[in-house]
Amino acid sequence: MSEVETRNPHSQLQGQLARVGELLRRQHLVENLAHRQQGDHHDLVESLVHRQHVAELQREIDGLHPADLAYILEALPPEERLEIWNLVKADRDGEILLEVSDAVRESLLADMDKPELIAAAEQLDAEEIADLAEDLPEDVLQELMHRLNAQQRERVQSAMSWEDDQVGAIMDFDMVTIREDVTLETVLRYLRRLKELPEHTDKLFVVNQDTVLTGVLPIRWLLVNDPAKDVAEVMASDANTFHPEDDVAETAQAFERYDLVTAPVVDANGKLIGRVTIDAMVDVIREESDAEVRERFGLREDEDIFASVWKSLRNRWAWLAINLVTAFVASRVIGLFEGSIQKLVALATLMPIVAGIGGNSGNQTITMIVRALALDQISPTSAKRLLRKELGVAVLNGLIWGGVIGVVAWLLYRNVSLGLVMTAAMTLNLLLAAMMGVLIPMTLLKFDRDPAMGSSVMITAITDSGGFFIFLGLATLFLI
Amino acid sequence: MSEVETRNPHSQLQGQLARVGELLRRQHLVENLAHRQQGDHHDLVESLVHRQHVAELQREIDGLHPADLAYILEALPPEERLEIWNLVKADRDGEILLEVSDAVRESLLADMDKPELIAAAEQLDAEEIADLAEDLPEDVLQELMHRLNAQQRERVQSAMSWEDDQVGAIMDFDMVTIREDVTLETVLRYLRRLKELPEHTDKLFVVNQDTVLTGVLPIRWLLVNDPAKDVAEVMASDANTFHPEDDVAETAQAFERYDLVTAPVVDANGKLIGRVTIDAMVDVIREESDAEVRERFGLREDEDIFASVWKSLRNRWAWLAINLVTAFVASRVIGLFEGSIQKLVALATLMPIVAGIGGNSGNQTITMIVRALALDQISPTSAKRLLRKELGVAVLNGLIWGGVIGVVAWLLYRNVSLGLVMTAAMTLNLLLAAMMGVLIPMTLLKFDRDPAMGSSVMITAITDSGGFFIFLGLATLFLI
C-alpha cells in the first residue's frame, strides 16, 4: 500500500495538513467512543450512536488507512474494538489483521466466523496468509489451502515451513525479474506493460534462464543510463543477498547498515526465490527492541493493554514465580544470620541498602552488555577487557558511595566498625554485580538464549542474596 | 551510498556469498587485531604487523563499506581503534564519522587535527555537517562555515537551528523536483540528463513556480504509465508531508505506519524545503528504543563499551546517587521498626521478599505502560480502565503468591499470624506497585518527561520503602 493511497476521501485538506488532520480525526473518533462509554445517559447516547452516528462512523472507517484503523482498534477497549471491527468492510479485514499486534489480532479473530475468516484471508498474499495461519482454526486453514491455486499453496507452505525468526517466513514474492541480455529500453517497455510495480520496488532482479540471480538493476540506474545500453553493462553483480534460513534480526541489521530498501532472497543454488523489504525489517527492529525490554522483566509476550486480568496473569506469572523462589533464597540467607541481627538490629536496617545499590548498578552493566551483544560488538578478548572496566567502575563506586553510606552508618549508630563493614560490603557487592552483569548475558548467549531474557530478575536475585550474605557475613565476622 | 556500491574489490565471491564473506572477513580482521594484543611475543608480532600487515590491512580497510568500518571501529578497544582510524583514507573520514555511535565519534574526533577535521567535514552534505557540528571545536566549525558556499552555509545553519528531535535537524536536501504541466516523457528525459538520482529516490516532488509542493510522483507510477500523459494526471496530490518542527519519533511512526521510503518536508506556506528518508527513520527507531532501555536504569547516554572507567562513572553516577538516597529512605523506614525486629527477628528475614516481589511486579507493569504510552495508545478514559486491570492482577497475584509465601512463613516459624501478615503485606505492596507502575510513567509524560526515565529506579524505591513499611507496620500492629 503506497502512502499516496492513504488519502481520506472526506479530507479537503491540503497535503501539508493531511497528517495533522488525520491525527485530529483519529483523536476525535476515539474520544467520541470513550465519551459514550462514560456518559450518564448511556442508553440515550447509545441509541443516538446506533441510529445517527453509525453511518458517519462507517464513512470515517472506510476512509481510514488500514494502519490507522489498526491503531484505533488497539487503543480501544474490547467492546468498542469489536463494534468498530464489525463496521470494517469484509474485503479490508485481511490487511488490518496483519497490521494489529498479535494480542489484538487474537481478539479480532475470535469474533469472526468461518466464512468471514476465509473471505479475509483470501484477500492476502501467500506470505501474509502464512503469517496469519498460526492464529487460524485448523478447519479454516484447510479450507483456505484447498481454495488456493497450486503456486499460492506452495508458497504458503514454504513460508510456514520456516521459523518466525528466519528470512523465509517474512520474504514476499512480489519481484520484477529481467534478463541481462536485453537493453534498458526493452526493460522500460516491459515495465510499462505491467499494470503496476510491487511496492517498494527500488531495484529489478536480473536472473538467467535457470532463475539464478546474476545481479540487480536499481531503478535509479535504469532511469539515468542510456536506454541503448544492455542490462549487463549497467547492473550491479554483487548486491546484498539473503538466504531463507538467515536470521531476521541480522538481516535487519544489514538493511540498517547498508541502507537497503529491498534485497533478493536466493536458495543454496543461487536461485531467486523471494525478496525482503524495508517495511518488514522496520517491524523486526521494533519488535526486537520491544522484546528486549519485555524480557528483562520476564513478560512472556506482547500484552494487549486491555487484556483480561486472567490473561495478564498468565503472561507474567512465570518470572514472578522464579522471583518468588529467588526472594525466598535471599530470605534464607538472612535467616542464617538471625543471631547476629538479634544482637545488632542495625544490620537489618542497613542491609537493604547494600542489596539495592548492587541491583541498580548490576542492571546498568547488564543493559550495556546486552546492547553490545545485540550489535555483535563483543569478542572473547574484548570481553575480558570489558569485565576489567566494569570491575574498575564497581571498585570506584563502592569506595565513593560505599564510603558515603559508611560515614552515614557510623554517624547514625556511633559505630566506626559498622561503617567500615558497610563500605566493604557495598564494594564487594558492586564487584559481584559488575561480574554477573557481564557474565549473565554472555552465558545466556553462549547457550543460544536471548541475552536479555529475565536478566533483570536474575541480576537482582544475585545482588540481593549476595549483598545480604556479604554484609551480614562481614558483620558477623567483625562486629558480633 | 547504495547497497550495490558495497562491493569489496578483493571479493571474488558470488552475490549470494557476499554477505557471509563480508562477515567472515570482518571477524578475521578483528581476531587478528585481538590476537596481536594478547600475544606473548608482543613486540615481535607488533613489528610484523607494522612491517608486513599494514599493507594488507590497508587494502582490507579500503575495501570495506563505511558502515562496516564503523562497526569495526566500535568493536575495537581505543588503541586498535585509532590505529585502524589512521589507516582510513582522508576522503572517507566524514561518512564514517556519521556512521559510528556518538561516544565512538568523540574518541575519533579527539584524535584528528584541524586540517583533518575540515577535510573530513567538507566531504559531507549540509545536514551531515550539521549533525557533526556539535562535536567539532568552535574554530574548526567557523573555518568550515567560511569555506562553504552560501546555499550550503544556509542549509547547515538551518539544520543546526532545529532541535535534535525535530524533522528539520535530520531532513536532507537531495530532492528531484518536477513541474506538473509536463509529460512523463519529458520527466524521463530530464532524469536521464541527471548523472545520478539521490539515494532512496522512490518519488519525485511536484512543485509550482513558487516551489509550493502540489503533489508527488512515485517512480513506480512514472514507469508504468503512458509517457504521453501529463504529470498532473498521474501524480498523487495528497502525499504524507512533514514540517521541520515535527517530532522525529512521531515522523518515524508515520513512516512505519504508511510504509514510506521518502517524504517531502514543507514549511508553513507549503513550500518544499527538504525530504526525510527511511534510513534516517530507522536510526530514529533504533535510538528511541535503545534510549528507553537505558533510561529505565538511569544511564545518561550511549556508552562506548571501551569508555574509560572515569567516563563510565560519570555516565552512571546520577541515578546511582538517587538510588543511594532512596535506599537510605528505605533503610530509615526499617529503622522505625527496629524495636519490632528486636522482638521478632523473623521480620528482618521475611521483609525483603515483600519488597522484591513488589519491585519485579511493578517493573512488569511499568514496562507495559511505557510501551503503550510510546505508541500513544492510552487516553484518559482507558487509563482508568488500565489501572483497574493492573490492580486486579495485583490482588490476584497477592492472594496466590502471597498465600504461598504466607504458608511457607507459617511452616518455617510455626506462626499462623506471621503467615497472614505476610500474605496481607504482599497483596498490599503489589497493589502499591501496580498503582505506581501506572502513575509514574503517566505523570512523567504529563510533565513532558520521557516516561521511561529512571522509572525502574523509582518503582523499586517505592516498592522497597512501601513494602518494608507495610510489612513491618502490619507486623507491629498484629504480632508485637
Report what the structure shows.
2 copies of one chain form a homodimer. Chain A has 480 residues and is mainly α. Chain A has 3 domains: 167 residues, Alpha Horseshoe (MgtE N-terminal fold); 120 residues, CBS-domain (Roll); 170 residues, Tetracycline Repressor, domain 2. Helix content of chain A is 68%, strand content 5%. A 3-stranded mixed sheet of chain A has the order 1-2-3. Chain A has a two-stranded antiparallel sheet with strand order 4-5. Chain A is elongated and about 90 Å long. The N terminus of chain A is likely disordered.
Short description:
Chain A is mainly α and 480 residues long. Chain A contains 22 helices and 5 strands. In chain A, the strands form 2 sheets. In chain A, strands 1-2-3 form a 3-stranded mixed sheet. A two-stranded antiparallel ribbon of chain A has the order 4-5.
SSE pattern of chain A:
HHHHHHHHHHHEHEEHHHEEHHHHHHH
Q: How much helical structure, as a percent, in the residues of chain A?
A: 55-70%
Instruction: Give the class of chain A from helix and strand content and strand pairing.
Output: mainly alpha
- Form type of chain A: elongated
Specify which chain pair forms the largest interface.
A-B, 160 and 161 residues
- Give the CA-CA distance, first to last residue of chain A: 74 Å
Domain CBS (chains A, B): 235-292
Family (chains A, B): Belongs to the SLC41A transporter family.
Membrane topology (chains A, B): Multi-pass membrane protein
Main location (chains A, B): membrane
